[in-house]
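Hey everyone, long-time lurker, first post.

I ran two proteins through the pipeline my lab uses and got sequence/structure pairs for each. Pasting them in order. The first:
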Amino acid sequence: MCTGKCSRCIGIILFPLALCAIVSNILLYFPNGQVLQLSEITDLVWFFHGILGAGILAILPAFMMLGAGGAGCCANRCGMLLSVFLSLLGLAGGVYCVVFSSMALIGGPLCDTGDGEYIYPFRNNTLEYNYLFNQTTWSICKEPENIILWNIVLFSILLAIGAIEAVLCFIQVANGLIGCMCGTCMRKKVGMQ
């Protein structure tokens, strides 16, 4: 596959991934569709790893990848070089999303255990006794309803999206370097001047 076409394919794939990451992160602010007080929302949601990391920092290189995949002067080497730098930014955003999603999955949600006080009942547990592997402990959280399942699903989606975006951006870094050195292999159509 030509470096220009590869760049465009990666750019097209990044757009829906970034949109899903933004939506998933926004949904984490409304557990089970409820509007909560700011102090009742899990703390790691406030790092905006889906909105900023896997969202905005993935959309920026995606735009450049679409442009770098087209025709340009000098076989579009400058566009490919710029896509390398923006892909590094997208790679950092994907890794940022993976790290904070992992931390949130391991630490568990902020919830009311029945006494009206919101705490993190699953923090400081070893992985052997982690709530992810022991579904019977989920009944500890009384409010918001289904908060554990809500967090597991959305943080897992963010984890997967961040990992996929990081891999795609890494591929684009290599692709962009090749395209910068060799050009985008755009061929002129026969009979067109």
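...and the second, right after it:
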Amino acid sequence: MVDQKKFALFLATPDSEFVKKAYGGYHNVFVETFGDEGEHWDSFRVVEGEFPDEKDLEKYDGFVISGSSHDSFQNDEWILKLCEIVKKLDEMKKKVLGICFGHQIIARVRGGTVGRARKGPELKLGNITIVKDAITPGSYFGDEIPDSIAIIKLHQDEVLVLPEGAKVLAYSDKYEVEMFSIEDHLFCIQGHPEYNKEILFEIVDRVLRLGHIKQEMSDAAKASMENKGADRKLLETICKNFLKGRVPAN
């Protein structure tokens, strides 16, 4: 009998009313994107101070750190605790997928520098350029490495200086580090593979209503997805292959 694979999701953001109503919470959004039948997924609301016991980390095959409206460079108690846990996972060589805030947290833990995005925030569907020379054919990207990937982006911070030993896997015209990896166990993406058009539009409407963005940015965000969608299937496959140590048969 094959042992059931176990994964842990560190939720650094609360569920919005929309996500709760439409999907039953972000747990379901992430598991639908990265999970497979027969797996067990636990969620820990790290933003609320909920963490697994250190002795239980070993039982998980992989971890996912979500995005957040909080700044990854701040020293809130829960952020420092998350950094401690990620440092431990790094020492254990556990597979960790960092998304947006999670991408920045991993860079911070490994000695990189994170801060406010030098060219300003981003809220849209955008293309990231893949550094094909940095990716080994037959790795979790598969043999057919794309030139670029369309991904939903929603952030105001970025990785300013990469940690030692990190490889940039993708960049854009606005940000130097859109995707990076360290060894075989840390994989980080600035964008949101788990988001769809409906989630993006609801966030856009909410932050506009709260006065965090101007109408112009809202209109541009929605226009970016008018005739195009994110490469969600490709991103899902890459992330799953990484988390589960799969080498795709192309």
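Reply from user beta_strand_b:
Welcome! Quick read of the second one: The first helix runs from residue 17 to 23. The longest strand covers residues 122-130.
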